[in-house]
Amino acid sequence: MNTRADVLLYVQHLLGIGHIRRAAVLARAFHRAGLKVVFVTGGLPVGGLEFGGVEVVQLPPARAQDDRFAVILDASDRPIDEAWRARRRDLLLEVYRRTCPRMVMTELYPFGRRKMRFELDPLIEAARTDDPPALIACSLRDIVNRPGDAGKTAWMVDRFTRQFDLLYVHGEPRLFRLEDCFPESPAVAERLHYTGYVTEAAQAVAAARASRVDTGPGQPGSGEVIVSAGGGAVGAALLRCALAARSLSPLAEVPWRLLIGPNLPEPDFRAIAAAAPADVTVEYARSDFVQLLTRARLSISQGGYNTLMEVLASGVPGVVVPFAGGAETEQAQRAQVLAAQNFITVVDEARLDPAQLAAGIERALAQGGARGKAPLRMDGAEETARHLIARLKEVAA
Question: For the segment 204-256, what is each residue's pLDDT rounded down to a tens digit?
Fold first, then answer.
């Protein structure tokens, strides 16, 4: 009996948790489509993720020291060394040899995660030289952070064109085309497939609205301002500013709820909770975030891929403060385009203060949210599954 896996999906989150959340949505969609999936994760464990029947392999975890991504730390907060790299590489290759996948899919690499070349290059080489060889695919969000160094950009294009068969861009070309942020993309165009956005937000919103749960004032989220900061590693400033902006905003009299991601240091959580008045709830991020949004008056968030899709699907007015630390430009680019089409309201992180945030709240209430506007395509996980199944069939024919 053939026991080969269909897809080995590799993801390495280093700072936030958006990458692993999006990859988990893909894995669940692949499984629902009948594919045998092995999900390999190399970041710190994230609670609350559901995988159903997907096999999950946790490699020794690593994270970035800060938003510059220059230093990678192990689970004990020590810089990784050659022995650690060799152990991870060998473990990853063992997973490949055990599962013999028909496709290896890397999340972001080679358009990012160059720090993980020590294990990804051997994995890809093993897959390409296998008999029969595995297809090699890259799963890429809608926007790429293009390096300022032309040599690094040339390396990305060369590595992709020599080693990869498919590029799945999880966005809509009517909003963002790859060449908008990566002018060298014509070199990969023949292998590129736009999938739409990878999210389960639309299904969660529909389920919340179809349920018979009371949506009255006693329900969490009802009439509230929901403030969230993704995984939380870089969100403390936004959370503190939101507390200070509340009294200046048109929504000073309604309840507020601050949702804090798992990566925010515990001392920061305690300090924010201690500063909050009685009618402001401070708690860790919840699995029913989308349901809260469907009952909320307003959302304040950073501009991560997953959160923005959830805000747009819910239709709630949204204030977005895109993270722009280090060399990150992706959140700002996405937010600017969506704001230009009146889906959201943007407050620049560089100018963030309570008065600016309060003014952004007023603009967002007047703008009214995404409800009633042309919807974005949000079936990207299902479309990716359909496309890769067709490619696997072509190879097998």
Answer: 898 888 875 555 556 888 999 999 987 666 788 999 999 999 999 999 999 99
- For the CA atoms of 359, 365, 366, 372, what is the dihedral angle to 10 degrees? 140
* CA atoms of 138 and 122, how far apart (whole Å): 16
The answer to pTM > 0.85 is yes
What Å distances lie between residue 338 and 47, 209, 245, 326, 333, CA to CA?
30, 25, 24, 22, 9
- Beta-carbon neighbour count of residue 371 at 10 Å? 12
Per DSSP, helices labelled H in the chain are: 18-32, 82-99, 117-128, 150-163, 178-181, 201-210, 236-246, 266-275, 289-295, 305-314, 330-340, 354-367, 380-396
Residue 326: Cβ-neighbour burial (10 angstroms; 0-12, 13-18, 19+): middle
Q: Which domains does the chain have, with CATH numbers?
A: 7-198+378-396 (3.40.50.2000), 202-367 (3.40.50.2000)
Alpha-carbon gap, residue 188 to 192, rounded angstroms? 6
